[in-house]
Amino acid sequence: ETGVTQSPTHLIKTRGQQVTLRCSSQSGHNTVSWYQQALGQGPQFIFQYYREEENGRGNFPPRFSGLQFPNYSSELNVNALELDDSALYLCASSQQGGYNEQFFGPGTRLTVL
Amino acid sequence: KQEVTQIPAALSVPEGENLVLNCSFTDSAIYNLQWFRQDPGKGLTSLLLIQSSQREQTSGRLNASLDKSSGRSTLYIAASQPGDSATYLCAVRKTGGYQKVTFGTGTKLQVIP
């Protein structure tokens, strides 16, 4: 059973650019959630995808968008990058119903200059 | 709106000591509570998951308790080791809807040899 993987590990962008982060969910999981974690803070919920549909969203602007694919892998897209978008982006997969326990990937460190 | 607080923010203990980390939440309508460990710059590792109907869970030297009525959970670490040094985060999943997860800001633990 493979765990949650994320790519890339690190990324450097400049203000105004666009970025796509990728996540492969754990085998058997149908739900992917994305979080933003600023330095010294707890993860903040961005949105969640269940069976290819966004079914929950936190307080993030529309320039944060996502996709989930039939194999339950997911992408997070951020347009018009701002300096404050610099953070660790975490993806978590879970199986809705049952315990709904989340398993996290290693994260993508995004730096916006 | 669910608010999750973790006290203390940082803790330094000598090796071998037993310790307790605290997590408080404001809305008792929870589905489950999950404790994680995070090493610097890394993803989150799941430690224990407690369903809302449970009072405690144990894994090795770790024991987590849940008191929904008072909005509190504790993580007890027995016989601490230097390898336990990390940031510990609690995450509360609400009931209903897409079951949004809210994280605390974490307790940074240092175990001194």
Spell out the blueprint of helices and strands.
The complex is a heterodimer of chains A (113) and B (113).
Chain A: E1 5-7, E2 10-13, E3 19-24, E4 31-37, E5 44-50, E6 53-57, E7 64-68, E8 74-78, E9 87-94, E10 103-104, E11 108-112
Parallel strand pairs in A: 2-11
Antiparallel strand pairs in A: 1-3, 3-8, 4-5, 4-9, 5-6, 7-8, 9-10, 9-11
Chain B: E1 4-7, E2 10-14, E3 19-25, E4 30-38, E5 44-51, E6 56-59, E7 62-67, E8 72-77, E9 86-94, E10 101-103, E11 107-112
List keywords for this structure.
heterodimer, A: 113 residues, mainly beta, 4-stranded antiparallel β-sheet, 11 strands, 0% helix, B: 113 residues, 6-stranded mixed β-sheet, 5-stranded antiparallel β-sheet, 59% strand
Could you explain how this protein is built, in words?
- With 113 residues, chain A is mainly β.
- Chain A has strands at residues 5-7, 10-13, 19-24, 31-37, 44-50, 53-57, 64-68, 74-78, 87-94, 103-104, 108-112.
- In chain A, a hairpin with a 6-residue loop joins strand 4 and strand 5 (44-50).
- Chain B is mostly beta strands and 113 residues long.
- Chain B has strands at residues 4-7, 10-14, 19-25, 30-38, 44-51, 56-59, 62-67, 72-77, 86-94, 101-103, 107-112.
- In chain B, strands 2, 4, 5, 9, 10 and 11 form a 6-stranded mixed sheet that branches.
- In chain B, a hairpin with a 4-residue loop joins strand 7 (62-67) and strand 8.
- Chain A binds chain B through residues 4, 6, 33, 35, 40-45, 48, 50, 55-56, 58, 88, 90, 92, 99-107, 109, and chain B through 4, 31-32, 34, 36, 41-46, 49, 51, 89, 91, 93, 97-106.
